[in-house]
Amino acid sequence: MTALAGCGTTEIPETAGGDPAEGAALSESCAADRTATATGPVSVTDGLGRTVELDAPAERVAVLEWQQTEDLLSLCIAPVAVADVEGFTTWVTAETLPEGTPDVGTRQEPNLDALFATDPDLVIVEASGPEDEIVAQLAERGVPVLATLGADASDPIGHMKDLFSLIAEATGRTERAEAVLGEFEAHLATARQEVTAADLPTTDFVYFDGWVESGNVSLRPFGEGALFTAIGEELGLTSAWTGEVDPVYGLGQTDIEGLIAVGEANLFYTGTDDPAGDYVAELEKNQIWTSLPAVEDGRAHAFPPGIWTFGGPRSCEQAIDAYVDSLPAP
């Protein structure tokens, strides 16, 4: 539940950090944004069921997870601090952090002294549960904390949208959120028509990412409950991964040989260069991979780099485009 009172004109920031009135140049979409920002008291229920109350919508927001950072930027708010700026800029391209955004350490172990030096009036975190250590540490400092949950395998798209709306409510940007989510739904509807019109040899598909460890390739197929699986299904594709997946994110684990089980399915995978090792280069050397039907038929497609598989509406729009761009030419 959210209580908001009063609205004001959106102020688009111009530079990162410091006083939000000085602000930061954000996206072209934000430059053209004319949605209203609420000005009255805020009361929201966060992902842990906690009531978070603010005298006014948060303006100086620090964020310790990438999806929530993306969401804040899509709402046309420049964060005063972010965890792992380099990682964000590598894995997330749907939104761009303003230059000079303060980095407060890793997502798992943030530097709380650096965080509080930015004087936030709200800190957004991704919590593992009611006993989350970072939530407790932040609460001790007396700054409001919005604890969010990263995923919900029972409704991954609905959860993505609800999380975006929750952050919008806490920052008074509900009107902007409604506009962005409307654009997402329209994007999805248009793409669904394109997929329906395409002459696909099969609608079966698997999206996966992977990594290299001790010279071995491990793959992480996205099964039922995963966000990018749900997007593919909304487009009219059929998930082909039937292996075990975790109950929150819908993610499995296998090796290259495990992909034999998906048969004729189309294959999609992340194209982001992982500093820890190029698993795609290792795939391409492997005879099992090169003999898979999708690879032999040219139906194995890397998504463009920087599409965050656990992102908000803008990352999901990028994923929609990547699926459609892989369709065979008419």
TrEMBL record:
It is found in: Cell envelope. SUPFAM superfamilies: Helical backbone' metal receptor. CDD domains: FhuD. GO terms for cellular component: outer membrane-bounded periplasmic space. Keywords: Signal, Transport. Coiled coil: none annotated. Gene3D superfamilies: Nitrogenase molybdenum iron protein domain (3.40.50.1980). PROSITE patterns: FE_B12_PBP (PS50983). InterPro entries: ABC_transptr_periplasmic_BD, Bact_iron-sidero_bind. GO terms for biological process: iron coordination entity transport. It holds the Pfam family Peripla_BP_2. The keyword Transport applies. Belongs to the bacterial solute-binding protein 8 family. This is Fe3+-hydroxamate ABC transporter. It comes from Brachybacterium vulturis.
